[in-house]
Amino acid sequence: MGQAHQSRLGTYRLQLHRDFPFDAATDLVSYLRQLGVSHIYSSPVLSAVAGSAHGYDVVNPTAVNAELGGEEGFAEFSRSLQAEHLGLVLDIVPNHMAIGDRANLWWWDVLQNGRMSRFAPYFDVDWSPVGASAANVDAVLVPVLGDHYGRVLEAGDISLEREGGSLIVRYFDHVFPVSPPSAAVLYAEAGAECSSDYQVFLADALATLPPAEPNDAQTLLRRHRQKEVVRKQLEELWQREPEVARAIDRVVHRYSNDPDLLDELLGKQNYRLAFWRVAKQELGYRRFFDVTELAGLQVEDEDVFYATHERIIEWLDAGVLDGLRIDHADGLVDPEQYLVRLRRHAPTSWILVEKILEDAEELPDSWPVEGTTGYEFLTLVGGLFISPAGEEPLTKLYNEFTGETHSFSEIVREKKRLVLREVLGGDVNRLAFHLRELCERHRRHRDFTWEQLRQTVIELAVAFPIYRTYLQPDGSIVRSVDAATIEHVIAMVREHAKEPIDEELLTFLRDVLLLRKGLPESREFILRLQQLTGPVMAKSVEDTAFYCYHRLISLNEVGGNPGRFAITPEVFHAAAHRRQQRRPYSLLATSTHDTKRSEDVRLRIHVLSEMPDAWRAFVERSAARAARYKDERLIDRHTEYLLYQTLIGAWPISVERLQQYIKKAVREAKAHTSWITVNEAYESGLENFIDALLGDAEFVSDLEQFLLPIVSAARVHSLAQTLIKCTAPGVPDFYQGSELWTDSLVDPDNRRPVDYGLRRAMLEQVVEGNAEQMMLEHERGLTKLFLIHRTLAVRARQERALGATAGYRALSAVGDRAHHVLAYLRGERALVVVPRLVHILNGRWGETSLEVPQGQWTNVFDRRTVSGGRIDIQDLLSSFPVALLLKEDV
After folding, report:
1. Which of 702, 378, 395, 792 lies closest to 558, judged by CA?
2. Most exposed of 156, 169, 398, 602 (fewest Cβ within 10 Å)?
């Protein structure tokens, strides 16, 4: 581990949590080594919120998560990896921390001490938020209340308590600190009541803590130490003198039971408790997307970087880590600056960024990383198994069945506006404020109203075709791709804005974004805009529009574009060649913890593109039969169409799993119900409909008959896709459990326990078996496991054939079924041949053939040997659905 020469053969993603901790992962190490991967790719392991299912809600980046097994568990896991010569790629979270849990001592200190906290610079807090009253300046908005503040306070749901040597504010499970000066008032009252001069003395010491500026580190530290000394002395005093403790308890009780006194106390805090809905329009800190419990970090600050990366750097230096996966790099102010700094501590490590690349978008060349986590590959490879001939009839059926008249791009624009208004309103207001500051510097623009500027910000964000640009407002050079994006955005605002935006204002904004104005005020506007457009894309496209547009739901995938129907072999080959030249160690993913559907679910649904007429007939039969179970007021046609496609992808599926999935889908769609405003009648109607439909034996029988050819074709496509993943330029990534057929839907469905006992036993069969035996158990997924094991073994033995330096050359079949073949050479020694669109093909290869370079070639799967020259595809794929040929040494 930790060696630059560690072969990058394949990664296996594990989701660690308290029910699958380090010892469970340790038990899998020998299995994964036998499978053939070179690295375990782990979810975050640093201390997270209690019960976290994923680890992205870090509360302490300096400690290992105790629920996973703590320091010793991680050490044992690392030792087991070293013993089996496996590497470790660790997922890290530089963008944010969880703040809803008091275990985050840094945030607790910020709430207690405000701008005079040592940790105030760590978090991206706006201490003077837009529209804040004088009383609320320097106070962090904490929107956790179930109703308006005054109502909650007067209902007695907020209380004051003594805890150790401190006071806390409690709202059900939420607790908050009390600032030292305001606590000192209560301590002084209690000291006077019980005539304790020492208590009064300590109260005075707390009230007169040395003031400090945020950048005055020495005074901040002295203030913190003095505060802690007083706290400990108070705790000791209350333990030593019960009468003094009873006095403070009486004062606490009095404040806690008097809304006026408690309101006065709360008004002196460094935070402001508020109704949770307020976060939609007002928020004083940057969040991860719209998650109020996750606050943005300022890792662009060198001190913050080192404080949050202490353990990561320690593990890199010790050789414990071979690679890092950077979560949500686009959330950072300056991703490149961050990556350059990180690279200094990981000069030979494998650094991968989670980055959604839209059509034709590339990672910036200047980023010192090996590549991405592979979503762009997922879209490309999956598109090979969609028939372009199905686009028109499936679009027609979808429009007729649902009444949908809008294109996907139109839906996206509308959902972006919805998200910007209803979910990210606070971020919009913040940007509008910075835009107003810019405009006020120019007499031709200073008269625009607040609402006009706010609407301009919304339309700018709506028009972005990608997650973000990477403008450097402190520099003078704009990358050509960023300049082109800005020009495109301005043009799209002109064309599609809900209300026309003033032309001079648009020209001014274009010049600001292209760094032509050189205004100091433009810096904050540019940086904040770049941090906003990513969350807008994620929340409006992936988390909303994908659940509203159901033409072919297998296209609705992270990194995908449901408006683009299929991928041609030529497009795939060009992308593969480019990857081999530019980022040969980029991951190749087909399923992840974030995908909306597993690879095998998507591939089943893809097959519908090959059989649109049969699909139409099935939908019409199903809808006619389902009508008896429907309440038309509750069951809309969009959801019904989603349901039928989901059954195609995931059958057999339990009623409960399907109900949970559909509930999440309709809430994300935000049309009839949502996470914020639950429509219980609608959701109950859906549950009843699903229960009745799946209880209909005739419907289920029809479904299962209809699925037979779909499942058969999809399994061949799955083998083809998996072989491509294992042999194309890049490094294959396997999500936990996906070495067999997987029927998972979006999380939490894809976090169900994996049966590794079954997989171990099946791997033993694979090691001892051959292609003929595997095909006898094709239905169980043995063929997929066999393919992965054999191909990864080739990657290990033949790095020149399938490694980073092996070239990539597309080959073209000839014959009337040539378009059903995808073939390519890696270097001069490996040849890959897979079928595509096999439902249409129906086994009828005819005279289709492929010209193979001269030499003797052995098929890795069936061990048959063929000579170079023209080979017959039907014969090549007769014993196993796909082929990997290796050239024998002369």
Report:
1. 378
2. 156
- 3-state percent breakdown (helix, strand, coil) of the chain, nearest 5: 50, 15, 35
Cα–Cα dist 566/387, whole Å: 7
What pLDDT score does 135 carry? Answer: 61
Query: Residue 4: what pLDDT?
Result: 44
- The residue ranges of every structural domain in the chain are 11-95+298-373, 105-291, 405-548, 755-797, 805-890
Q: How far apart are CA 621 and CA 696, in angstroms?
A: 13
**pLDDT one-digit tens code per residue, 665-685:** 999 999 999 998 999 999 999
Domain 805-890 indexed as CATH 2.60.40: yes
pLDDT score of 5: 46
Distance CA(113)–CA(177), nearest Å, equals 9
Q: Which two tokens stand for residue 264?
A: 């006065």
Omega of the bond leading into 347 within 30 degrees of 0 (cis)? no
Backbone angles phi, psi at 394, to 5 degrees: -70, -35
**This prediction's pTM:** 0.95
Q: What pLDDT, on the 0 to 100 scale, is given for residue 3?
A: 46
Classify strands 174-177 and 291-296 as parallel, antiparallel or unpaired.
unpaired
CA atoms within 13 A on the CB side of 467: 26
Dump pLDDT digits (tens) for 363-401. 999 999 999 999 999 999 999 999 999 999 999 999 999
Neighbouring CB atoms inside 10 A of 444's CB total 11
Q: How far is Cα 485 from Cα 231, in angstroms, rounded to an integer?
A: 55
| Those residues with Cβ within 8 angstroms of residue 888's Cβ, 6 or more apart along the chain or in another chain | 855, 856, 857, 858, 865
Q: Is 781 helix (H, G, I), strand (E, B) or coil?
A: coil
pLDDT tens digits for range 9-63:
999 999 999 999 999 999 999 999 999 999 999 999 999 999 999 999 999 999 9
The identity of residue 531, as a single letter, is: Q
Find the mean pLDDT for residues 469-487.
Answer: 91
Residues in the chain: 890
Given this structure, which CATH class describes domain 11-95+298-373?
Answer: alpha beta
Q: Is 105-291 a domain of CATH 3.30.365.10?
A: no
Separation CA 716–CA 837 (nearest Å): 9
Q: How far from 851 is each of 297, 309, 504, 782, 858, CA to CA, in Å?
A: 56, 53, 61, 31, 15
Buried-state track 861-886, b at ≥16 Cβ within 10 A, e below 16: bbebebeeeebbbbebbebbbbbbbb
